[in-house]
Write a structure and sequence with these properties.
Helix content is 59%, strand content 8%. The protein has 289 residues and is of the alpha/beta class. It folds into 2 domains: 8-88, Arc Repressor Mutant, subunit A, CATH 1.10.10; 110-285, Glucose-6-phosphate isomerase like protein, domain 1 (Rossmann fold). The chain starts with a helix and ends with a helix.
Length: 289
């Protein structure tokens, strides 16, 4: 028995319920069937827009298929898309079992370069300047996220701490809530969420709003539920499906965006930044043999 037979394709499930769907739900079904490989990379709002329906229609469609929410639906579609690629052959740029190491290296470097290029195209100079202004004026900046995005938040705190001393990574979601509840209007939360649709993000941002602090969200999806609650959105490039769980391309794209932001902040006062970095380097010199 094949893998597809063991695990029914989401497209098979779509065909089973197709004639029970409303006309709007059929638009979603038709799109998913025609553009299976695209769906795992889309937010619920992007899929709804592509189908010309409301977000609620997509949610109902997911439930019709027996999926416990949109994330579960995307995971099922990603699995189906992977099975299709295995049967038809890999898409251009994907690593295969038969690739030599040099070929594999070229494919990976190309995909990373494409992720950075996508992010560069998404950079809005006005937004970069606005975020730099906000961070430079902040009393403290709390870097937050969950899972792989928390690793990016810690990376951000480390990057900015090499020049600025008011960036702090807060890992535990309970501690995040405790800290958020004590913010004031001079404080900032820098939150990382590729999807912009995690429960923790949607829990923390209303607390930040209530405290009148500023929230900056780094995400792939500017129309996500989290983006609707954030004060400022920084969009990163790189498509990632639910089976990748934190791809190198997505991480590099976000690091590139952080480096752009840090560079903008540093060039506002080059001499002061150089002095702080010299002081830090001197303090760290004793750590080396």
């Amino acid at each position: 028995m094949t893998k597809t037979e063991k695990t029914p394709s989401i497209l098979t499930e779509v065909s089973k319920v197709y004639y029970q769907l409303t006309s709007a739900e059929k638009k979603v079904a038709d799109y998913v069937s025609a553009e299976t490989s695209k769906v795992p990379y889309q937010s619920i709002s992007e899929l709804a827009s592509a189908c010309g329906v409301a977000d609620a229609t997509v949610s109902r469609f997911c439930r019709r298929l027996g999926c416990n929410g949109f994330s579960a639906f995307k995971l099922a579609v990603a699995s189906t898309a992977m099975n299709i690629r295995s049967a038809d052959g890999p898409l251009s740029g994907e690593v295969t079992q038969t690739d030599s190491i040099p070929v594999m290296c070229r494919k990976i470097s190309t995909s990373i370069a494409e992720a950075v290029a996508q992010t560069q195209e998404l950079v809005d100079p006005k937004t970069i300047r606005r975020v730099a202004d906000i961070l430079l004026k902040a009393n403290k900046v709390l870097c937050m996220g969950q899972g792989g995005s928390m690793i990016m938040a810690e990376e951000a705190a480390h990057m900015f701490t090499t020049t600025f001393g008011n960036f702090f990574a807060i890992r535990d979601n309970h501690i995040q809530a405790i800290n958020a509840a004590q913010l004031n209007r001079d404080d900032v939360v820098l939150y990382f969420s590729y999807s912009g649709a995690t429960r923790d993000l949607l829990d923390i941002l209303p607390i930040v709003q209530k405290r009148k602090a500023t929230s900056i969200l780094i995400t792939r999806f500017p129309n996500s539920p989290g983006a609707a609650l954030a004060d400022v959105i920084l969009q990163c490039g790189s498509n990632e499906n639910p089976l990748q769980l934190g791809s190198a391309e997505a991480r590099v794209a976000q690091i590139y965006l952080l480096d752009v932001l840090l560079s903008e902040m540093c060039r506002r006062d080059v001499k002061a930044c150089e002095k702080r970095r010299e002081d830090i380097a001197a303090a760290l010199s004793a750590k080396h043999i």
